[in-house]
Amino acid sequence: MVDPTNHNPAIDVLVVDDDPVQGAIVSGVCTKLGYRPHFASSYHEAAARLATGRFDYITIDLSLGDHDGIELLRLIAETGAKPRRIIVISGCEERILNATVRMAHAVGMLDTISLPKPIDLALLRGALAPFQEAAASRRGVDSRLSEITADDLRRGLDRGEVYAAFQPKIDLSTGKVTGCEALARWDSATFGPVGPDVFIPLAEQGGLIKTMTLRMLRDSMTFAAAFLPTEPKFVVAVNLSATLLSDTSLPEEVERLLAEIGVPARSLMIEVTETTAMADVGRAMDVLLRLRLKGIGISMDDFGTGYSSLSALARMPFSELKIDRSFVKDCLTDADMWKIVSSSVAIAHQYNMKVVAEGIEDAATWHALDALGCDIGQGFEFSRALRQDAFVEWYHGWMARPPATRAAVVPLQREA
């Protein structure tokens, strides 16, 4: 049993398998890595352990007798105390394993991976390795962040602790920088770095989201203005909350900011998720249409992750489509993901929309997407999100590279 009050930095792993031999093998690997394995031979035993403690990793065999691993994944998602990583282990066919991982992603467990049986111990060790340092401090961090209130965020805004970081967007065929996405960051003097998954809901609940968004817009437009003399087609993208899509005064406020800073409307892209856009179609259509009439671009973010993607695409005045990273990151190894990505590119082009792929993490994915006809990419292959000065430094370094190294010169062909 794991003591939830224990602050020992040891890493706890819950090993769930109805085969004691397999469980012993996995537990042995954990022990050699210096972790503390906790074995559960059934769904019910695993549920009891989850009710009394928290785990940094969980390995799950999909076949668990009367219950199965899918039921356990659902239970973990409902507990709210999610591990850093879940490793699904099974002898099932590859498509079942892939679908299981996608199901886990859909219910919020984004770092779920699968390993086939018979298990490769080297692969298991690699799967258990990435979060050793983060897991050691996670319990204390989670407890500290849970104490943050909207008043703390308000003070952080007043002190200038909330700022925009910018992730580059790259033309996949030429390697040129086309713009960036502005991402809100909060470095709190009291709590340290606070993730947007924590402070964005606080901003919405505390009535601070409009203040934060207008600040992001102002900082982003000012940032774009500095690039326009050398990159006339530079576009900065800013995310828009569902709350603001019902604010019919927003288009005029954005237009005033553009005029004040001296940035053309074409240099701004507003990103909204399909779920946000479809929450109140009438008001959203009002705001989005007026933004488009002013020459501002509208991007459909996280395409494919909701329930009404095609309906939103057909009804809303989008000019850009962003393919969610959950489809992009595995598209070269998962045939189903590749089909979704290639279909998304084709559909967007039929609507005369630019296509952006999020989550490009290697050159092979870059080349494959370029060969597919995807227009723009962003991801760690190019750069993480950077503060303004760091972005400028990165930009000069990127542009100083020979053009051939900034373009997908040897496309990787892939059958759909």
From TrEMBL:
Per its UniProt entry, which superkingdom is the organism in?
Bacteria
Q: Which UniProt keywords apply?
A: Phosphoprotein
- Note whether Phosphoprotein occurs among the keywords: yes
In alphabetical order, the GO MF annotations are: cyclic-guanylate-specific phosphodiesterase activity
State the Gene Ontology BP annotations.
phosphorelay signal transduction system
Question: Which Pfam families does the protein's record reference?
Answer: EAL (PF00563), Response_reg (PF00072)
**Modification 4-aspartylphosphate, positions:** 61
Q: Which SUPFAM superfamilies match?
A: CheY-like, EAL domain-like
The Response regulatory domain is annotated at 12-130
Q: Tell me the ranges covered by the EAL domain, including all copies.
A: 146-399
**CDD domains, from UniProt?**
EAL
**Listed name of the protein:** EAL domain-containing response regulator
Organism of origin is Rhodopseudomonas palustris (strain ATCC BAA-98 / CGA009)
